[in-house]
Design a protein that fits this description.
This protein is α/β, with parallel strands linked by helices. It has helices at 38-48, 62-68, 73-82, 85-96, 111-116, 119-122, 143-153, 214-220, 232-240, 263-276, 281-293, and strands spanning 7-12, 32-33, 36-37, 53-58, 99-104, 127-130, 134-136, 156-162, 172-178, 184-192, 203-211, 248-252, 257-259. The protein has two domains: 7-258, Spore Coat Polysaccharide Biosynthesis Protein SpsA, Chain A, CATH 3.90.550.10; 262-296, no CATH class. The protein contains eleven helices and 13 strands. The strands form three sheets. It has a nine-stranded mixed sheet with strand order 5-4-1-6-11-8-12-10-9. Strands 2-3 form a two-stranded antiparallel sheet. The chain has a two-stranded antiparallel ribbon with strand order 7-13. The protein is globular. 39% of the residues are buried. Bound molecules: uridine 5'-triphosphate (UTP). Uridine 5'-triphosphate (UTP) binds next to β1 and α5. The site of uridine 5'-triphosphate has 22 residues, from β1 and α5.
Length: 296
Amino acid sequence: MSSAITKAVIPAAGLGTRFLPATKAMPKEMLPVVDKPAIQYVVEEAVDAGITDVLMITGRNKNALENHFDRVTELEVALQKKGDLERLRRVNKSTDLADLHYVRQGDPRGLGHAVLRAKLHVGNNSFAVLLGDDIIDSRDVLLRRMVEVATQRDTSVIALLEVDPSLSSMYGIATVERTDEDDVVRVTGLVEKPSPADAPSNLAVIGRYVLRPEVFTVLERTPPGKGDEIQLTDALQEMAASDEYGGVYGIVFRGRRYDTGDRLDYIKAIVQLAADRDDLGPDVRSWLKGFVAGLD
Ligand code: UTP
């Protein structure tokens, strides 16, 4: 059995073109979802799954990310003076979450290229990758289960979600075989963003991975693929096709997931998460009912 999985990589160097102009000077991972940036939900999820060390792959707008996870002494002093200890606790939460590190990607040459930038930091251990625009509801378990399966089977594990076949061109799509565990499948093939006619299934790859370190060797020789970018999916396809790297397994996730990289899904995420909150929920739900009743 491999050693404990304690490191995570969060690629946050994409251009975020779907959210321009909001992402002109700020990474999309910093967009607020209710009152926390998306990235904080993701780091909290990693920590809940046993991660203690997080490496963010940053792009040209990295300052906002670094500042969010750093102390702001003036703010802390001001809140302390006012006796606003609840807000002080919330402000400090992001600072104390995990041991955070940053490395620049340079040119954004794709998700695979971003992950490859983590090679030196990660070393020869399995590690998690979390995409900052996928939020998994904290009431549902995904990454912890992936870490468990990766450790037990000494393999790489991806997260799969059943999607409407018409959406296949937005995702990597997997071909799978069943295993003796209900939520675990063996991945036999992967294709990046196929048209619905070419999609081998309706199981889409979502933004959580637990990868064996051999992925770096494979990524180093992976040529640019779809969109002329180095695709993580292409490297995983090679790992799935060979027994040399322990294969690739998938967890079929049946919980709540919010895709905040897309404008409509971002709005849905805010409404759903706010409506479920103890503090804001009652007011949001009551306003929402009135608002919906007034629609045509
Ligand atoms: P996306 O393709 O969703 O991100 O990449 P994007 O390019 O920022 O978004 P759009 O389509 O232009 O709006 C998935 C993840 O990989 C990261 C992104 O930050 C995102 O979390 N990424 C992508 C990198 O870190 N580097 C890259 O070169 C590409």
